Amino acid sequence: MNIIVFGSINIDLVATAPRLPVAGETLLGEDFFKVPGGKGANQAVALARLGIPTYMVGRVGPQSFGVELIKNLQASGVQTDNVFVDKNVTSGVAIITVDYAGENQIIVIPGANGRVNQEDVERLSHLLPEATALLLQLEIPIAAVVAAAQAARNASIKVILDPAPAQSDLPAELYPLVDIITPNEVEAGQLVGFPVDGEERAAEAAAVLLQRGVRCAIVKLGAKGVFCATAEEKFFVPAFQVRTVDTVAAGDAFNGGLAAALFQQFSLRQAVVWGAAAGALAATKPGAQTSLPDKFTFDAFLKEKGVGR
């Protein structure tokens, strides 16, 4: 059995600076680097590094970025036979600014990701009989996301949706197809139409999302922790305290840890703890996929924090 990730594959161009610029301002930066990214690819790598058999379905362009992105996925243990090389467009690119506190601003140019369509959903559908879960994000066209979720639901496969980049107008028909939705506080606020700035507001947002048809709502509150709600239970998991360097891909690491635990049939509460641990570890290193923990590092962190497998 395996987990499928259907989503974006980008190259990240990252600049670091003392703080994030305001509109119209020019800042002198400190460093620049290029790393593989994209929320879909990040989540696939997060899973594979935790030892989970992982299949990636998506698109890249034919130029050097595309070759590099596929090779990096393979080097991390991700199966890439269903990553399509679209010769008519460039690979997706994310332009990222990170400040000294680890906060970031991101501009994403979709490229090949913007051309993901029903053909890709059909490639995905062939993999579903051997899958236990499908991970989705919103860096590909929403029509493809809905179609993929519907295909997974028809095959009785668990659907985990990271609603990022945030959208306030997600199709109503998508929510009932989602088993677990994992917005951060900003994304949750945009989904439900009111600010989400703490545990109480997270609980209110989760209740709205459950009413819309999702089976489990997990609201990530950064350094404050994680709130989780289903029809049967509600609980809060405090954040692991780490020295934050860069929060890029911390949310993707969370989804990787969450899905990895569920793959191994741990409880939902333990899965949320695993997600919080993976996200915390990712925040201690710069870059997207370069920050994602391997199984040895992850297990050592759990042991250090007194969290059993």
Notes on the protein architecture:
With 309 residues, the protein is α/β, with parallel strands linked by helices. Helices cover 34% and strands 23% of the residues. The protein has nine helices and 13 strands. The strands form two sheets. A nine-stranded mixed beta sheet has the order 5-4-1-8-9-10-11-12-13, sandwiched between helices. It has a four-stranded mixed beta sheet with strand order 3-2-6-7. It is globular and about 50 Å long.
Strand content: 15-25%
The shape, in one word, is: globular
> Strand-and-helix sequence, N→C?
EEEHEHEEEHEHEEHHEEEHHH
Low-confidence runs of at least 5 consecutive residues: none
Question: Which class do the helix and strand fractions yield?
Answer: alpha/beta
Distance between the termini: 20 Å
Overall pLDDT level: 95
| Strand count | 13
**Rg from Cα:** 18 Å
Number of helices: 9
Across the major sheet, the strand order is: 5-4-1-8-9-10-11-12-13
Helix content: 25-40%
Biggest beta-sheet profile: 9 strands, mixed
Put the structure in a nutshell.
34% of the residues lie in helices and 23% in strands.
Keywords:
single chain, 309 residues, alpha/beta, nine-stranded mixed β-sheet, four-stranded mixed β-sheet, 9 helices, 34% helix, globular
Write the layout of secondary structure elements.
Elements: E1 2-6, E2 10-16, E3 31-37, H1 39-49, E4 54-60, H2 64-75, E5 79-85, E6 92-98, E7 104-109, H3 118-127, E8 131-136, H4 142-154, E9 158-161, E10 180-181, H5 185-192, H6 199-211, E11 216-220, E12 226-230, E13 234-237, H7 250-263, H8 268-282, H9 295-304
Parallel strand pairs: 1-4, 1-8, 2-6, 4-5, 8-9, 9-10, 10-11
Antiparallel strand pairs: 2-3, 6-7, 11-12, 12-13
Helix pairs in contact: 1-7, 3-4, 5-6, 7-8
